[in-house]
Specification:
Layout: E1 10-14, E2 20-24, E3 43-50, E4 56-59, E5 65-80, E6 83-90, E7 94-97, E8 102-117, E9 123-126
Antiparallel strand pairs: 1-2, 1-3, 3-8, 4-9, 5-6, 5-7, 5-8
Length: 127
């Protein structure tokens, strides 16, 4: 029988095959994401609390990202070649952030979102 876990403190790495591997999230997870060989290939799945505006931009060079808002209201800001594009998400809305596009979020109502992306090579920069 499988153990239960929550997707806030443990992400899943959905491998390019039949496997799914649990990855505990610690304080250094995002600071060292580009140094995690276990994220090579596959997709990273996790639930992210949206309590306040993001303090940084992020970009995923290895693949698109699915964002599915579970609760709350969020404005995603995408830095596209033609300028910024803003997407208003409410609970139940989803969008795809294209590979290589810097993005950030403004929280209008606290909530949470499910993210699915290729974690390999994820980059961050201050907002």
């Amino acid at each position: 029988m499988a153990d239960t876990f929550d997707l806030v403190t443990n992400y899943l790495q959905l491998e390019d095959g039949p496997a799914a591997r649990r990855i505990p999230v610690d304080a250094e997870f995002w600071a060292k994401i580009d140094q995690r060989p276990e994220l090579s290939g596959g997709r990273l799945l996790g639930v992210f609390p949206y309590e306040r505006d993001w303090s940084s931009w992020e970009m995923h060079p290895a693949g698109d990202e699915l964002v599915y808002l579970l609760a709350g209201a969020v404005e995603l800001v995408l830095e596209e070649p033609g300028g910024e594009r803003r997407l208003a998400l409410r609970a139940g809305d989803a969008c795809i952030v294209p590979r290589g596009i810097w993005h950030t979020a403004n929280v209008q109502q606290p909530g949470s979102a499910l993210h699915v992306t290729r974690g390999e090579g994820t980059r961050h920069r201050p907002r």
